[in-house]
Structure formats: structure tokens, C-alpha cells
Design goal:
Layout lengths: L18 H18 L4 E4 L2 H8 L14 E5 L2 E7 L1 H10 L7 E4 L9 E4 L6 E3 L14 H15 L7 E3 L4 H9 L4 E3 L1 H9 L3 H24 L6 H15 L3 E9 L20 E10 L2 E2 L2 E7 L4 H20 L6 H5 L21 E4 L6 E5 L16 E9 L6 E10 L4 E3 L9 E3 L4 E2 L2 E2 L21
Parallel strand pairs: 1-7, 3-6, 7-8, 12-18
Antiparallel strand pairs: 1-2, 2-3, 4-5, 9-10, 10-11, 10-12, 13-14, 13-15, 15-16, 16-17, 19-20
């Protein structure tokens, strides 16, 4: 396990992250979970699961298309059906898709046994799904997908075994069923395989977080009255892409009265003096994501905002102190406040404000930390898990709020925080202002009370 960071290039003079090992280890972990399950094969349409299984990628524009698919069986290595030109590229540059397979023996009723034989066909093939219904249903695309899958299941003696699928469009589901294939939920198998990260995965997640460290440094320098939330999003995106980000999934930029309640989407609001502002930066480096909140005050902070920040930080620190192998998600959420304590009717209404989630090839993986589910369904923490913990607290003035998030790696004796931009106390960004008597205080509850008897501390 490494949380070291390197440059984004490979070099000959230093051993850095081993991508061949990354590819091999991910497939081994997935096959272990497949063997433990009751299914004979796994079919993936989910972009992250396809990448985890096959180490293929054709650009983040394809994430929401559900048009690519990949299959791995107990008796064979991954097969990827992709856009034809992408499939041809895979054949040229993805040699791991042409390894040997354990092809089933002649007896099709002995599905879990087979002699290893060279694969006669490439594991990278042209094939597309229904384009989320955009293809005319009469074109028969769904049935063609089902025929491709059935052929492989028959070939490897697994047609009578359940097929686990992560996500599926209804026409594909119905076509598979018409082909005589029993379809079951396979998403848990993928998520169980992905829950504990390999050393290379931890390295990539740490590298991704280091890039957000840099983005927050630039954002801290940039924030001042008069800039807009969307400008902050643009700045962060440029910094990350310049550093080599593969995909800026989102930048949650929230300021002023928009902080409470949290709307989860940025706007074109102008930031004003004294505003609270919090940000969540989500991006991907080599497929591995970040989810990383920080809160600032711009120019100055009210005492209510400072108190809210201290409360959110206290809940964060209590949670981090409990993270170690053998602890459970229930142990963590027990130190977080109930929804009713910060203005919500129940845990569903406050979902994702006091929250934790695994981070990997997607931003919400196992384990999940929430008072909504974790007491009744606790998950045990293991060394090698990587997850983000998020806390939130509204300010007493009913206007601002604080939001903090840290990503941690579970170690043998506790955990290591890999999100490094300072968050121990509320940071004040923007211009420092000076009056005749010296610098204005960074904690200011109003701007016009000093020239009153009460403001001067005099007796009436």
C-alpha cells in the first residue's frame, strides 16, 4: 500500500505505479468474488465496472450511454464489445485482452471445469447496445446483444448458470430472458471486489487527491468579492485539466445564503464580503475519483459561521479517530448528529450531509456511512479500504453553513488522511482590509455597529 505521490509520467529511473499489476490484480479480485458467488458469469454495462474488469477506456463522454458491454466468466477472461474503431484500437494496444482462457470441456454440463486453451478470437470485439433506446426497437439490437452473450455462455459451458448484471436496459433484459438466460443482480459482486483497494489503486487515489490540493490552493488565491460561483468552477477545472485530470466530474460551488440548505449545484451567484463558500471537487485521474469538500469565508466570517465550522470539524475528527480495521460503519455514524439536531425531519431528508462513501473508479462505492442505513446494516472496515467522510453544520444565524470532507485510507493500525489542503479551522480567503486603526478583524458580525454607544462598549 502506498500513499506516495509521483509525477504523472512513467520514468525509467524510478519505480512508480505498476499499471500491469493494477490490471492483473483487479481482474484477480473480481474473479475471486465471482467464484464465491452463485453466478457463472458477469455482464457489465456500467462504465466503471467495464474498466475494472477489462482496463479499457474510450473517453468519459461514453459514461452515460450504456452502449459498451463486457463479459467475464468463471472459465474465461474478459471480452469487451465496443465501438468498432475502439475495438480495433483495443486489439492493437490492449494485449491483456488476448490472454488464454479456460475454455469448457466438451461436456456442457460441467461448467466450472475446463482445460486452458488459447483463445481463438480477440477479447476486443465490435458490438453496441441500444443507445438507451435511440436505435429503432425493430432493428433488433437487443436480440443481437443477447445472442452475443448466449454464444459465449454456451462456448464456456455456462448457459445454465445465472448471469449477473450490474445495470441493464429493459429491452436487453427481456432479450436475454427470451434467449433462455437467467439474469440476476451482479452489482454486489463488482462492488465487493472493488471495496478493498490494491496498492496501485491507493496510489492513484492519492495522486488524484494531490491534484485537488493544488486546485484548492489556486481557489484560495482567487476567491474575493465580485467573483461568481461558476468562475470558481472554471478555474478549478482548468487547474485540474492542466495537471492531467482525465475528467472533472463536477465542482460543487456554493456560497452565501445558498449554503443552507445545501442545493448541491453551483450557480452564477456573485460572492460578497463575509460570505461563507464551500466547494466539492470531483475529478478522475486514470479513472480514480476524488470527493473533497472545503469551506472558506471570504474577507471575514461571522461568529455563527465560525461556530458552525468548529462543529462540523469536531464531528469529522471524532469519526476519523474511530477508523481502524474491525470498526464498523455503525461505530462511525454513532458520533454524528441526528437529522433532527440540525433542522431535518428524518435521516432520509438529511441524507448525504453527515455521510461517508467508498471512493474508487466511481465516487460512491462500498462502504456507505449513513445513519439512514448503517445501524441496521453495519459494514466492517478493512485495511486497504479508501473512503470519504463528510460532515455538515448550518450556522445559527440561519444563513451560512460549513461542509468538510476528508478522504482516508484504512491502515493496519488506524487510517491515513490523503486530502491535505488545510481544514483544521476555517480559512478566510480574499483581500485583507485595513482601516485607520489597523486591520479589520477576520471575525466580524456586522459592519456598522462600531459608531454606537453599544458598539464602542460605553455606558449609555
Amino acid at each position: 500500500m502506498t500513499t506516495a505521490t509521483f509525477g504523472t509520467n512513467q520514468v525509467d529511473w524510478e519505480k512508480r505505479l505498476d499499471f500491469d499489476k493494477l490490471r492483473a490484480d483487479r481482474l484477480v479480485k473480481l474473479k475471486v468474488e465471482l467464484e464465491k458467488s452463485d453466478v457463472g458469469a458477469l455482464l457489465a454495462f456500467d462504465f466503471a465496472n467495464i474498466r475494472y474488469m477489462s482496463s479499457t477506456h474510450i473517453g468519459t463522454w461514453a459514461i452515460d450511454k450504456a452502449i459498451r458491454f463486457a463479459l467475464v466468466t468463471r472459465n474465461s477472461d474478459p471480452i469487451v464489445w465496443d465501438f468498432g474503431s475502439a475495438a480495433k484500437h483495443h486489439q492493437l494496444y490492449n494485449p491483456w485482452l488476448d490472454t488464454t482462457t479456460a475454455e469448457a470441456d466438451a461436456d456442457p454440463h460441467a461448467p466450472h471445469h475446463g482445460a486452458v486453451k488459447p483463445r481463438a478470437e480477440s477479447g476486443a470485439r465490435a458490438g453496441i447496445s441500444t443507445l438507451r433506446g435511440a436505435f429503432n426497437p425493430d432493428a433488433g439490437i437487443a436480440d443481437e446483444v443477447a445472442a452475443k452473450i448466449k454464444r459465449e455462455l454456451e462456448k464456456f459451458g455456462l448457459l445454465n448458470e445465472p448471469l449477473g448484471i450490474d445495470i441493464v436496459e429493459l429491452p436487453i433484459l427481456f432479450a436475454l430472458q427470451r434467449a433462455g438466460i437467467t439474469v440476476v443482480d451482479g452489482q454486489q459482486i463488482f462492488l465487493n471486489a472493488r471495496a478493498i483497494k490494491t496498492g496501485e489503486e491507493i496510489g492513484l487515489l492519492t495522486q488524484a487527491a494531490s491534484m485537488v490540493d493544488a486546485a484548492y490552493e489556486k481557489l484560495y488565491e482567487f476567491l474575493r468579492p465580485g467573483v461568481r460561483e461558476n468562475e470558481a468552477v472554471g478555474l478549478v477545472s482548468k487547474v485540474l485539466y492542466d495537471l492531467g485530470s482525465e475528467y472533472v466530474e463536477g465542482v460543487n460551488a456554493i456560497s452565501g445564503e445558498r449554503c443552507s440548505p445545501h442545493p448541491h449545484v453551483y450557480s452564477d451567484r456573485l460572492i460578497r464580503p463575509g460570505d461563507p463558500a464551500f466547494f466539492d471537487i470531483l475529478h478522475s485521474y486514470q479513472g480514480y475519483r476524488t470527493c473533497y469538500y472545503r469551506t472558506f469565508a471570504v474577507g471575514s466570517a461571522s461568529s455563527a459561521q465560525h461556530d458552525a465550522y468548529k462543529r462540523a470539524r469536531e464531528y469529522m475528527d471524532r469519526a476519523i479517530a474511530l477508523v481502524r480495521p474491525g470498526a464498523t460503519t455503525a461505530d462511525i455514524v454513532a458520533v454524528w448528529p441526528k437529522a433532527e439536531e440540525f433542522g431535518f425531519a428524518n435521516e432520509e431528508a438529511a441524507f448525504a450531509l453527515q455521510y461517508g462513501h467508498g471512493v474508487g473508479l466511481s465516487i460512491w462505492e462500498k462502504p456507505i456511512f449513513s445513519r439512514l442505513v448503517s445501524f441496521d446494516h453495519p459494514e466492517v472496515l478493512h485495511e486497504g479500504m479508501v473512503f470519504a467522510l463528510e460532515t455538515y453544520w448550518p450556522s445559527a444565524d440561519g444563513w451560512g453553513a460549513a461542509r468538510i470532507e476528508e478522504e482516508v485510507v484504512v491502515t493496519a493500525t488506524g487510517c491515513q488522511v490523503i486530502t491535505k489542503f488545510p481544514a483544521e479551522d476555517l480559512l478566510v480567503a480574499g483581500q485583507r482590509y485595513y482601516a485607520v486603526g489597523g486591520p479589520l478583524p477576520l471575525e466580524r458580525d456586522s459592519q456598522s455597529h462600531l459608531n454606537t454607544v453599544a458598539g464602542r462598549g460605553e455606558k449609555a
